[in-house]
Amino acid sequence: MIPILTPTEMAAVDSAAPEPFEVLVHRAGFAVASAALRLLGGSYGRRVVVVAGPGNNGQDGRVAAQMLRRSGVRVTVLEQSPDLKSLPSCDLVIDAGYGTGFHGTHHCFSSDSPVLAVDICSGLNGLTGEISGSVAPAVETVSFAALKPGLLFGDGPEVSGRVHVADIGLDVSAASMHLVTDSDLRGWVPKRELRAHKWSHAVWLIAGSPGMSGAAELAATAALRGGAGYLRLSTPGGTSPTMPIEAVGYPLNAESWASEVVMQAERFQVVAVGPGLGRSEGTRVQVRELVAELNRPVVLDGDALWALGLQAGQLLKQRRSPTIITPHDGEFEQLMGHRPGADRIAAARELAAATGAVVLLKGQATVVTQTGSGCLVVRSGDSRLATAGTGDVLTGLIASHLALGADPLRAAASAAQLHGRASMLGPERGLLASDIAGLLAEAWNQCEAEQPR
After folding, report:
1. For a FRET experiment, which of 65, 176, 179, 230 has its CA 20 to 30 Å from that of 147?
2. Taking the domains of the chain in order of start, what are their residue ranges?
3. pLDDT digit string (tens) for 106-127?
4. What pLDDT sits at residue 208?
5. Which helix (H) or strand (E) holds 61?
6. What is the DSSP letter of 27?
7. 421/398 Cα distance (integer angstroms)
8. Number of helices and strands (H, E) in the chain?
9. Which residue spans within 39-146 are E strands per DSSP?
């Protein structure tokens, strides 16, 4: 995991550092100069313009300028100013104008040269990733000690380029937020024990409705590909499923099924509810009854979240077993009465506090959090995931990781990471949700192969 610190948290870490300020600036400047030389491909004959602001970022930029000069680079240092419109011709611009503490409207300089950002692009909100005014998009950003939320959310990923976290000796061990990486998966999702049998990792999926079988089939396939040993698929009022053929169909009465699930769920490690379930009043009643009475871990998505609505907090906080909910922005609004704000980490934490559940808030960067358990951010996928059915795949995958024995918070985060990783194995155009389900095993094998032995 890679630590993430808000601007306020980063300021506190800076203040608590035992090293003198000058030492930290020297280390930061060295990291910036090293990145610059790498981007330049050498120093001989190279020209660099450093735009330096009045704060710590400006100091880092000035130190980097001194080091680059000693390496033979021709460096011009310009003071950050609203009047700075255009820059001299150069091979690289170092944006050391403003950092994560900037407030106001930024007026960006104009340059056709590649830009290296110091900690964060000037004018980019360090907490939300919103642009205030204008920014100079960077080809690379050197972030000190930890990632900042603004690099991961909003416009941040589009304007920050490749992000490199430079260790300058600050203690970030108390960080409560982390970016998930592929290397985390192996340690988070247990392997099947040698004595395992199909019921050791069993999932009951309640999904689909008459004429809406696709969501159920996607979630079921993902659960099986993710490691579920036994998958029972029930569509209330529907016929037995035809796909995937490995799923075991089990009929449920359309109007009264919650009590039967409660009575028979003991053999299952997890019950997943919601994909394509429909939005009838009967569905609302049955989902609420199931949530209230079932003493098994549950994953709730799609229409199950609609069924809970604004009563989600009251219903879920009474549960004794783990609950994972996976809303997108519209479903978040159904549960909370308002859409998430620009600070998506705060939004996810708000929902977690209101419901007592593990919350997976879907988005460009997915946030997974639980009150008292920190926050995990996932950015393994891209816009390929913006297609119908990918959320159903994620639901089944989360259920499988939970059934394999993963901690609920990590089950959700590891599933999101693998989900995104699988999508990146598919084509940039024309990727279907069913393709992602089919690529899950390959993605997992790749992650395992990349782990140090």
Report:
1. 65
2. 2-176, 182-449
3. 888 888 999 999 999 999 999 9
4. 93
5. helix 56-70
6. H
7. 14
8. 16, 17
9. 47-52, 74-79, 92-96, 115-118, 140-144
